[in-house]
Design a protein that fits this description.
The complex is a heterodimer. Chain A has one domain: tRNA-splicing ligase RtcB. Chain A is built from 13 helices and 19 strands. By secondary structure, chain B is an alpha+beta fold. Chain B has a single domain, classed as Archease, Possible Chaperone, Chain: A, domain 1, CATH 3.55.10.10. Chain B contains 3 helices and 8 strands. In chain B, the strands form 2 sheets. In chain B, strands 1, 2, 6, 7 and 8 form a 5-stranded antiparallel β-sheet that branches. Chain B has a 3-stranded antiparallel β-sheet with strand order 3-5-4. Chain B starts with a strand and ends with a strand. The chains are: A alpha+beta, B alpha+beta. At the A-B interface, α5, α7, α10 and α12 of A face α2 and β6 of B.
């Protein structure tokens, strides 16, 4: 079936095994083309192997085609743990809990933008709080904060930030059960007080995009994707609250690891037995963080609708889907012919339910789950759909983006923000950001080829390509 | 290079920050400047508002983790950036007493590039070099 590459044994098209060695309890499995494997940092393989040593890990330590060097877990890492014997890891979810992408349908042809593109970009920039030091439009009182952490996007809709139907197309129907606001520190809540409905910075963005190519007509039609129509992508997460929960529990788990008898090959793998006090507290806090991210994307959706209503009063901006890529979720999966409850960590990886899965909204039950793959400024984004058999491959998971090819530091040395912005404008992409340096660090060329990543995801049977989206307007933090 | 200073080092997705000093306190000052330089040019910050910070930890590297995370928290909660630090660390008791000098973020003047989500345990190290200087470093998630 081909030759061994960088210590990886080929086991299928775009599928490789990292054989068990040393303290690994299970093998590693990486989904990628030979070209992507060649280009990967060796740290990815080391981190996959480290994750495979954690107690209670089931089947394999997985990495997606966009895997790159992360903290403890590789970014693009997926690992499932037994719900009784396993661990839960703050490092395995990351700082930006439930960071994700929401895709909105407009039904507007690209030609509608011809005379108003600059104006739309300016209106969006004025309306969407983005970047360091930006503040949201509301300040949450302590009781509002707890209600938001328990209610997620459902809370936001109840407060007038959107429509009931929006929730049908959000993972968990917009509200993650089991959130525990009392497990979230006062510091985390303090960081979030003024940050609801803000985009953040770094690789987060709001984009107006064109559906440039359709790969799967039937699925595209079901999702409402039409060639040369406009869609909107929102990429952001749980803001300061999630970051502080990650910090608080990373510290606590790292300090307690010895007490739980955990031998960690890397401190960043900080975790706790799922049945321990710390494990349960993190679970409740992390779920509150998921709700914060869902509420945040819901509030941003409302702000985008306000802007679009100024220009196109009759465009309702339906939610196509909202999917998170830094999570740990309790899911039922079949393992060796047996149904088991597992805590599935996805760090820089999306869920990708196959057609027919019971948790899918009715409208997508027979197509499979929309999988939203983010790009950056000049690069494409993709809509995929969970492939039949995805549960057997990597517990129904797929990639989440392109991943950086170059560090921020190197990008800043190579490009100037103004040049990047003007270059993109020359290609018809309007970028609005308060920070030229931020634009330089996020230059499209600093990212890997997202097309190669999604092609590998398709060949590996994780998810199938539905549509390719290209940016027209990009609001950055 | 001079005995005291800071630099950034490579991490695929994010950025590493490193400080050197003749004392542990100086190394902590420098690594804090390196972290600020991820966000802004520390030279653009007017040191008008002092913020006092006191911490204690059981290991030097956890003290560094706590020190930088404290700054991340104060920056987020008070919407500030810092340009100067005065840090004293008792090397035996691992008690830290510091003053961070800065001001509220002004987007036009500071043009912040990115916010820091958190300080990681990746490449976290506090150690004495062969030449007697202290090194303090870690990767920050942006």
């Amino acid at each position: 079936m081909g030759t061994v590459l960088r210590g990886l044994v080929p086991i299928g098209d775009c599928a490789w095994q990292l054989p068990k060695k040393g303290a690994m309890r299970v093998p590693g499995v990486l989904f990628a083309s030979a070209e992507l494997v060649q280009a990967m940092d060796a740290k990815v393989f080391e981190q996959m192997a480290n994750v495979a040593t954690l107690p209670g890990i089931v089947r394999a330590s997985y990495a997606m085609p966009d895997a790159h060097w992360g903290y403890g877990f590789p970014i693009g890492g997926v690992a499932a743990f037994d719900a009784e014997e396993g661990v839960i890891s703050a490092g395995g979810v990351g700082f930006d809990i439930s960071c994700g992408v929401r895709l909105l349908h407009t039904g507007l042809p690209v030609s509608e933008l011809r005379d108003v593109r600059e104006r739309l970009a300016d209106l969006l920039q004025a309306r969407i709080p983005a970047g360091v030091g930006s503040r949201g439009r509301i300040r949450l009182s302590p009781s509002d904060m707890d209600a938001m952490l328990e209610g997620g996007a459902r809370w936001a809709v109840d407060r007038g930030w959107g429509e009931r139907e929006d929730l049908d197309h959000v993972e968990e129907r917009g509200c993650m059960d089991g959130a525990d606001p009392t497990a979230v520190s006062e510091r985390a809540k303090q960081r979030q007080r003024d940050e609801m409905g803000t985009l953040g910075s770094g690789n987060h963005y709001l984009e107006v995009q064109r559906v440039q190519r359709i790969f799967d007509g039937a699925a595209a039609a079901r999702f409402g994707l039409v060639q040369d129509e406009i869609v909107i992508s929102i990429h952001c997460g749980s803001r300061g609250l999630g970051h502080q929960i990650g910090t608080d529990y990373l510290r606590r788990m790292a300090l307690e690891a010895g007490r739980h008898g955990l031998q960690l090959p890397d401190r960043e793998l900080a975790c706790a037995p799922i049945r321990s006090v710390t494990g349960q507290a993190y679970l409740g806090a992390m779920r509150a963080g998921i709700n914060c991210a869902l509420a945040n994307r819901q509030m941003l959706t409302h702000l985008v609708r306000e802007v679009f209503a100024m220009l196109w009063p009759s465009a309702p901006l339906r939610v196509i889907y909202d999917v998170s890529h830094n999570t740990c979720k309790l899911e039922r999966h079949e393992v060796d012919g047996e149904q088991r409850l597992l805590f599935v960590h996805r760090k820089g990886a999306t869920r990708a339910w196959p057609p027919g899965h019971a948790s899918l909204p009715e409208a997508y039950r027979d197509t499979g789950q929309p999988v939203l793959i983010g790009g950056t400024m000049g690069t494409a984004s993709h809509v995929l759909v969970g492939a039949p058999g995805s549960e057997e491959r990597a517990f129904a998971s797929a990639c989440h983006g392109a991943g950086r090819a170059m560090s921020r530091h190197a990008a800043r040395k190579r490009w100037r923000g103004g040049e990047v912005r003007d270059g993109l404008a020359g290609r018809g992409i309007l970028v609005r950001s308060p920070s030229l340096r931020g634009i330089a660090e996020e230059a499209p060329e600093a990212y890997k080829d997202v097309d190669a990543v999604v092609e590998a995801a398709e060949r590996a049977g994780l998810a199938r390509r539905v549509a390719r989206l290209v940016p027209l307007i990009c609001i950055k933090g | 290079m001079s005995s005291v200073g800071w630099e950034h080092f490579h991490h695929d997705a994010d950025i590493g920050v490193r400080g050197y000093g003749d004392t542990l306190g100086e190394a902590f000052e420098q690594v804090a400047l390196a972290m600020m330089a991820v966000i802004i040019d520390p030279g653009d910050v007017q040191a008008r508002c002092p913020v006092n910070i006191a911490l204690r930890a059981s290991e030097p590297d956890m003290l560094l983790f706590d020190w930088l995370n404290e700054l991340v928290f104060v920056m987020a909660a008070r919407n500030m950036v810092f340009g100067r630090f005065d840090v004293r660390v008792d090397e035996s008791s691992l008690q830290l007493a510091a003053t961070a000098w800065g001001e509220p973020v002004q987007r036009d003047r500071h043009a912040p590039a990115v916010e820091i989500k958190g300080v990681t345990l990746t490449e976290l190290a506090v150690r004495r070099l062969d030449d007697g200087r202290w090194l303090a470093q870690c990767v920050v998630d942006v």
